Amino acid sequence: MSQTENLLVAPDVLSRVLSRGRATGAEFSEVFVEDKRSTSASLDDGKVEQVSSGRDRGAGIRVIKGDTTGFAHTSDLSEKGLLAAAEAAAAAASQGGGGVNTVALGAVVRHPVNTVQKWPDEVAKRDKVALLQRVNAAARGVHKAIVQVSAGYGDSRKRILIANSDGVLAA
Predict the structure, then answer these.
(1) Structurally, how many domains does the chain consist of?
(2) In 2-18, which positions are buried (b, 16+ CB within 10 angstroms) versus exposed (e)?
(3) Is-contact 8 171, C-beta < 8 A?
(4) Residue 28, domain member (yes or no)
(5) Which of 51, 106, 121, 169 lies 20 to 30 angstroms, CA to CA, from 4?
(6) Longest alpha-carbon distance in the chain
(7) Is residue 2 in a domain?
(8) What three-state secondary structure class fits 16?
């Protein structure tokens, strides 16, 4: 896998977004992108009560000019959406001015937390429910006095990317 492969936003797009954030003369701009997938399930008295999954993703853009900080966020991770958010953050941090500041990003710095054999979102929901059912059976098997079991399951996978006008690109 190359350093820039599988990033949430392409480095060239990030560079243009950061430059747009500094276009009114700001000293600093930063992009924070997050993509989170989650699943939850509950089992009560041997019955699956609920199974749900979701995805939250978006970006926040911060622009600093002097003592003023502008911030904007968007769930539109397209270049157009990110540029619009950068303009909004720059406008919030500045009342005019102008100029173009080219941002050259450094090499991607990856921070692997651990080695994962299989990501939670790669496991079928039926397998997650089956795990709850095994928990239910194991709990009931401890003693005949156990007549009700409640169990819950949850997982999430969060990916983030941070880039700023100092050249930082971390994922």
Answers:
(1) 1
(2) eeeeebbbebebbbbbb
(3) yes
(4) yes
(5) 121
(6) 76
(7) no
(8) helix
pTM here is 0.77
Whether the CB-CB separation of 133 and 49 falls below 8 Å is answered with no
Q: What is the mean pLDDT of residues 71-76?
A: 94
The amino acid at 112? P
The tokens describing 73, both together, are 């966020």
Average pLDDT over residues 108-136: 85
44-62 core/surface letters (b: 16 or more CB in 10 A; e: else): eeeeeeebeeeeeebbebb
Measured at the alpha carbon of residue 53, what is the angle toward residues 48 and 58, in degrees to the nearest 5?
165
Q: Which residues pair with 113 in a beta bridge?
A: none
Q: Report strand pairing: 47-65 vs 68-74.
A: antiparallel
Tokens of 63: 């622009």
